[in-house]
Amino acid sequence: MKEKSEERNELQINRGKKPNQKLKPYLVLQFLLRETDENNVVTADDIVAYLNEIGIDAERRSVYKDIEEINKATWMIENGKTLQEAEEAIADEEERLVIFDPHRKKKGFYVRQRRYDLNDIRLLAECVYSAKFIPQAQADRLAAIVSDFVSRHQAEKIRNNALVIDRVKTVNKSVLNNISLINDAMATMLDGSPHKPQKISFQYLAYEIGNLDKPTERRTKYIVSPFYLVIDAGNYYLLAFDNINQKRRTFRVDRMKNVCFVDEPREGAEAFANLDVETFMQRTFSMYSGERTRVKMRFITKKLLNTVIDRFGRRGVIYEKVDDDHFYVTADVEVSNQFFGWICGFGRMAKIISPEPVVKKFEEFLDKIREMY
């Protein structure tokens, strides 16, 4: 009889409670995380209005209690301490997640301590946007994910102020999947079990001067042994061993389509045994710094169109068809000996057209080389 009486009393007490009250502290915390930061506060009335708007009855006193419980709970979780220790700790304002600031025109609450600060998240968002190998839609999605760690106001500031330099984005939506698959192919442990690195196959996208917006798949299927994934100037590259030609090759990951595992062990380890990857990347891709100048160049189309687009991208670059065999490209270039060396590497397949001062500098560069022989 005593147990039944206690059950009836508890039911009567619960009937007197307002519905969904157990959700309230969580919703208050999410509202504070989204709406507040060091420069933006909300009042208890703002919080009550928000709760009422979503169908939860609340009053100012209960909001104050919720914030106190939030501070205790977050301190306990982050420090692995007891409730009593948390109550003692948050007596010091410096230990609280949510604080009340009475020293501004609009007095109110805000979330002060976060796992990441605004500069951390801004840097991550800028890295995402400056990575050319990430398609635009995925870049926006990833930036939105990291922006969840700051307030709504800070997230908007990040979107508006992101330093999007040379934002030439790939149109290949499978890039991130390609990267994951290549990493798995190179792994020595996979899904918790030993794994022998294996070959991969793929098709490589090629550009046509008449339709630069839609690269097409080459019919040739490449089979290579992957060894390194590296990032240079915002692009992802695969360093691999070409099993047919028996040499190292470099591929742009965003131009790889239909990447698949090949059930054969990786070959070519000796070709990479003594490779200094950083030095190799500098020699292969770096133009180093020089005087930035708008330069017009002519190249042989079939041989070099893809190489030139990989180097200069599309944004702010002009491509013009000269005839069936040649095209012009006009781009901003860091004019330096390294740039001239890059041009020399194409022999008679490339020529600097203008401006005249750059042509003269290139001639002087060639003359100095001739003097050595």
From TrEMBL:
Enumerate the spans annotated as WCX domain: 292-362
The organism sits in which domain of life?
Bacteria
- What range(s) does the WYL domain occupy? 216-259
Checking PANTHER family in the record gives:
PROTEIN PAFC, PTHR34580
- Name listed for the protein in its UniProt record: WYL domain-containing protein
List the lineage, top down.
Bacteria, Bacillati, Bacillota, Clostridia, Eubacteriales
